[in-house]
Amino acid sequence: MKATGIVRRIDDLGRVVIPKEIRRTMRIREGDPLEIYTDNDGEVIFKKYSPIGELGSFAAQYAEVLQRASGHAVVVCDRDHVIAVAGLPKKELLERRVSPSLEELMETRHPYALTDGENSRLQPVEGVDRYASVAAPIVAAGDVCGSIMFLSGENDGAVGEAEVKLIAVAAGFLGKQMEE
Fold this sequence. Notes:
This protein is an alpha+beta fold. It has 5 helices and 7 strands, in the order H-E-E-H-E-E-H-H-E-E-E-H. The strands form 2 sheets. A 5-stranded antiparallel sheet has the order 4-3-7-6-5, sandwiched between helices. The chain has a two-stranded antiparallel ribbon with strand order 1-2. The longest helix is centred in the C-terminal third of the chain and has 19 residues. It is elongated, with a radius of gyration of 18 Å. This is Stage V sporulation protein T. Pfam families: MazE_antitoxin, SpoVT_C. It comes from Yanshouia hominis. Keywords: DNA-binding.
């Protein structure tokens, strides 16, 4: 754990303000759920709660099946990090932060599909030179909680309607699993 040197007082309603600098670096937005942990030393720890992270092993199995059926590498993310990978070395992507462009795509709730001659390709993970060919946000109970995508290979061009529909179905299915 890293000390920040910032001290805040609890108000009369039991609230404490998380400083803007910490919210920005940790990508905590208004309305984001935080999980609260305590330990025997009296520490209170706030951790961003990822509802799709609860489905981590299920998402990994689903990604494996989807990868085998489609032949494309599959990546499942929550709003901040990669939580499941299939068809690529897991060390390369697992637990890495999603890119600002993928965050924006999730916020707008629009799917993405690579088209021929497209200049701006979607790089979904920060610091990794791989690009999405199809991506869709995962929506559960009206809230965006992540995304699922196919990554494009070296010689992949525009994607077909089948890939777009597969990812849309996968996003819908994972969203429904989160609601249960």
